[in-house]
Amino acid sequence: MQRLSRIENYGFIGNMRTAAIIDVDGSIDWLCLPRFDSDACCAKLVGEPENGYWKLWPTEEVISQTRHYRGETLVLETVVETASGSASIIDFMPLSRDADSIIDVVRIVEGHKGTVEMQMHAIFRFGYGHVAPGYIDAKGITAVSGPDSLRLETTVDLETNEDDIRGTFTIEAGERVPFVLTWYRSFCTEPSTRDAEQALKDTEQWWQEWSAHCDVSDEFREPVIRSLITLKALTHIETGGMVGAATTSLPEKTGGQLNWDYRYTWLRDVTFTLYALLSSGYRDEACAWREWLLRSVAGDPAKLQPVYGLAGERRLYEHRLDWLTGFNDSRPVRVGNRAYLQRQLDIYGEVMDGLHFSRVHHIEPNEDIWKVQCQLIDFLEKHWREKA
């Protein structure tokens, strides 16, 4: 078993379609592409190194390190110092170029002082760390497996074999070395190379402009805006559905079996998120949530579920990934969530409360909204005494 991990050591980046989870040692240990609920190609978080990761880190001992988000953005910067110098690793995910068909993860190494020898090591395993890809060494190195292609491009010389991709380089003060990982469908035309520096500028600008709309006092702004940015990043930009988490099977208790897949949309969680967003001045997100709700719960109110897929999918079949050892050996690792079969009466009240809260903030209901509310109340009036 690998070293014990601590959840609080992980950083989070995302593009409102999916997310990457980055350990304190510069290793992307969880990455699902192209959506939050897609199969992971880096699954070390809930398995072993051979289940996939992508690491950038100095080859020599790190004397000190700090980590922060760059301003009010979701751009994560890790500053490391060695005996020979210091450098930064800048991690982010630009907004997608073409819906869910092209996703980029960008990492930029910047030298600050002296020289630092860095190593890049990547093991990509599709199907939640189960399927080894084939590698094509042309225009960067591309890992291919079935419908998935992952192209890794950089100015650094890379080597590959049947198992992994490696590269070692030296960064000096003032230098910047980009790494761009691009996912695309293997049966589609290969996308153009993304300009890492321009992507960084665009990504920082987008998040800064979004954060500027936050209506909260300066006294509490820093923790509030960081929370809001995270909630925004967990909300799918097209469907409006918000995942409870970007991960699956992080245990409630280390070594226990209460390990669930939270990459779905819980009505309860989304309602509480709506309160936070509307209270902070974000009306567009509230409108998107309301439209998602209408699409998802329309129809028979008896069929209201506590949890749905990102686009309102209803059947979230649950199964176990027995080849994964779990976070700190906490088995099983699950995909899907049987909670969709449960009846939880409180969600009727939370849906009603969320819609009421929207009206209080001057998001007026339409005829469809009133129809859904009336259906829910009529059903609840007749059935609230029944056992779940």
TrEMBL record:
Residues 5-114 form the Trehalase-like N-terminal domain. GO terms for molecular function: hydrolase activity, hydrolyzing O-glycosyl compounds. Residues 222-387 form the GH15-like domain. One of its GO terms (biological process) is carbohydrate metabolic process. Gene3D superfamilies: 1.50.10.10. PANTHER family: GLUCAN 1,4-ALPHA-GLUCOSIDASE (PTHR31616:SF0), TREHALASE (PTHR31616). This is Uncharacterized protein. It comes from Vreelandella sulfidaeris.
